[in-house]
Amino acid sequence: MGILSRLFGKTEARSATSASYAEAFGISPTASGAYVSPRLAENLATVAACVSAISSAMASLPAYVYRAAERGRTELPGHPVARIIRHPNTRQTWPDLIEWIMAQALLHGNAVCVVEYDGAGRPTALLPIPWNNVQVSLLPSGRLAYDVAHFSAPWGGPGLSRRYLEGEVFHLRDRSDDGLLGRSRISRAPEVLGIAIAANNAVSKLYSGGLRAQGFIEAPVFLTEAQRKDVDNWLGKIREAMQHGRLPMLEGGFKFGNASISPEDAELLASRRFSVEELCRLFQVPPPIVQDLSHGTFTNSREAGRWFAQFTLSPWARKIEAEFSRSVFGVNSADCTLELDMSGLMRADAEARWQSHKIAVEAGILDPDEIRDIEGWNPRPAGKQPVEGEGA
């Protein structure tokens, strides 16, 4: 049995089609003729922008560890998980790790990190593992086992494999079909991406032809085989001239017939705009967030930002918090939780931030010194009162 047979489980390597080879590597064929995979999907600017918008926004959220108290909760900056937030591993910062986790979950449907522990069983680090390096098995006990092939070099081949059990792995899933593994949005709607990729390919071919009309050459008489060979060489020079913007000359009674259609006639541009909207729907990202302002105004773009926070980011934040409670805190910290502070999204919106502070002070929820602490300022000196109209 050859290596292809062992890789793809075929009894004979030559009996497998190229499509089955592609599917074995997560590349799906579509009706449009384009192949779709996470790597190919990111060639589309809209997919890359949606993934970047969600992952970078999630990475910008402050994270805190709390323990439930009799009345309310207490922040635990010295908790082992709080130390992971400050320093998750030797190669990444916390924003880097969250950005990576979100990109993996959006493109592959799953994001896996190995949880490292010290001798006392306290978590000390989260090590990111690319989804392509993970093989998940369901054990007879009903638990999942993760066979991880660690990379021996950044872009080299995989090293030795090691098995981890559920309690040793942080596993963030996109919506699952079986409750075990997440399924990527790319695999749920390959035709949407296939059409967008095919449209991109069509535009690429149009530009590679120098945006010149494509058509046919009409000969005055039937040609012999020898004449056909001469004409083929001659047509090559004609195509080269057209690609460089030079005006070709037709001799011997030959005529050029235009058999092409313009981008407007083919509605390529309209199709690509529609693909942007379709891909935004797939990732639940409002078009203005990825710089599609064709229907945007200042007002609805601002509302799109709120919609993005409420319906796109908030569910992912809850998923991450719940997965930390399941896999990272463990039984020794069952009363502890991770919180991703969504108010961090207002960091760049000073007007909205200070308006919310004003409401909190007027309602008696916070006092001015608490507001100053939130903003990173020291408390007012003892005895100094705010000047009328100065606020906090």
Automatic annotation (TrEMBL):
Annotated region (Disordered), positions in chain: 372-392
Under NCBIfam families, the record lists:
portal_HK97
Protein name in the entry: Phage portal protein
* The organism's place on the tree of life at top rank: Bacteria
